[in-house]
Amino acid sequence: MTPSHDPPLQPPVEVALARVVPTLPTAPPGRRLAYEPKFDGHRLLIFRLGDTVRMQARSGRIVTRAFPDLEAAARPLPPGTVLDGEVVVWAGGRTDFAAVQKRAFAASESRAGRLARELPASYATGVRAGSWGDSECDHLRLSRPETCVRHVPPWLDFP
User: Fold this and answer.
1) Annotated catalytic sites, by residue?
2) Which residue of 4, 40, 53, 66 pairs with 95 in a disulfide if CB–CB is 3.0 to 4.6 A?
3) Are 74 and 31 spatial neighbours (Cβ–Cβ below 8 Å)?
4) Angstrom distance (rounded) from CA 48 to CA 143
5) Under 8 Å CB-to-CB from 127, ≥6 apart: which residues?
6) Can you tell me the distance from the alpha carbon of 42 to that of 29, in angstroms, rounded to the nearest whole number?
7) Pick from 156, 40, 41: which is nearest to 87 by CA?
8) Measuring CA to CA, which residue among 155, 150, 95 is closest to residue 126?
């Protein structure tokens, strides 16, 4: 039997969400904490499935068609890779949430393509959520990404 190159995580998946806490946690003795920046964008999971790329919004909605520029940039990823990050659009040296909203809800392929040219998207991630055949990631729970942290290759840092 030929192994599947699909990751153990298939869209849609429920993602972990940030929560408000009254104070910052402190690290246990001998351990360190890491914090991630919160960009003014949309949470986006990228699944490299066999010959395709699928993108899932935080809500579970598949939004691949809305981001053809990110889909093309994700194609070189190895099949089975799953990324968890945030899509942003930069304008005037800062992220523009309204522009991301406009991109996310592009209803037609032609509108999505035009918006990709006018408002190019960037994808911020530092974690590879999973990869086919990576035993550490086979049963990853997105609510505990520290169980499988991998750095994304620099060529995925979209300008």
Assistant:
1) 38
2) 40
3) no
4) 20
5) 83, 84, 85, 145, 148, 149, 150, 152
6) 35
7) 41
8) 150
Task: Tell me the per-residue pLDDT of 9-49, one tens digit each, with 9 for 90 and over.
Answer: 677 777 777 777 788 788 888 888 776 667 778 889 999 88
- 124/150 Cα distance (integer angstroms): 14
- What's the CA gap between 154 and 117, in Å, rounded? 22
Helices (H), the chain: 68-74, 97-104, 109-118
Return left, alpha or beta for 93; rule: phi > 0 is left, psi -120 to 50 is alpha, else beta: left
Is 143 a residue whose pLDDT tops 60?
no
φ/ψ region of 154 (left if φ > 0, alpha if ψ in -120 to 50, else beta) reads alpha
Distance CA 30, CA 127 (A): 23
- State which amino acid sits at residue 49: L
Which domains, ranges and CATH numbers included, belong to the chain? 42-156 (3.30.470.30)
**Two tokens, residue 22:** 């009254």
Query: What is the value of pTM for the model shown?
Result: 0.70
Residue 83 in contact with residue 152, Cβ under 8 Å? yes
